[in-house]
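Hi F.,

I've been meaning to write this up properly since the lab meeting, where we talked about keeping a consistent format for the predictions we share between groups. The idea is simple: the sequence comes first, exactly as it goes in, then the structure tokens exactly as they come out, then a line or two of notes. No screenshots and no reformatting. I'm using this chain as the first example so we have something concrete to point to.
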Amino acid sequence: GVLIDVAVHVGTLGAVVAFFRAEVAEAVVGGLHILSGRLSTPQARLALLLIYATIPVIICGALLSAAGLTDVFRNIEVIAWATLVFGVALWLADRFGGLEKRSEAWDWRDAGRMGLAQAVALIPGASRSGITITAARALGYQRVDAARIAMLMSIPTILAAGALAGLDLVQSGDAALGLDAAIAAVLSCLAAFAALAVMMRMLETWSLTPFVLYRLALGGALLIYLYA
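Output, unedited:
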């Protein structure tokens, strides 16, 4: 269900914070600068951009939750087709996107566009990290920088989802489900840290094609399972 899904993402959050600790520290310092009214520092700018990029997914997620539509699209068919379609989108962005931008060039316009792309990831199977990397590559960011920005964008998004899921867990009073969620979070943290280390090393010299092939294989396997 959604709670375990969010728990896995919270575990991923721990891995992202640990792996990108320097950038996270900069954003935290930026948050302190914002609170003290120092909005013009590079750290404050990073924190503000991350907040701005998170607004679309929070609004869309809140609207879906309020309308009771959170679980409507959570089925194998939607996941399979989303995995395939956004896998092709990732290949197109990586194939035709430029390589002229670094993470230091991230600005309000690009943050807004990547934020809108992140909101589309509410479709099950779209992959939050995958679609934000796709958007970054389409905007011309180098692969390593696209992945770095996408991972940093996950932090406020997962914090918001984790807080909401934690509230639901407290209200349900289901201790067994809480234990399952904790186990899922720990395992996902370990797996995500290893995956980040491999991915960031790969992207220094490789294209995103291996990830595209993975998505095509997974989506195809799900369709075969579903229709055969």
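Notes:
The longest helix spans residues 143-172.
DSSP finds nine helices and no strands in the chain.

If this format works for you, I'll send the rest the same way.

G.
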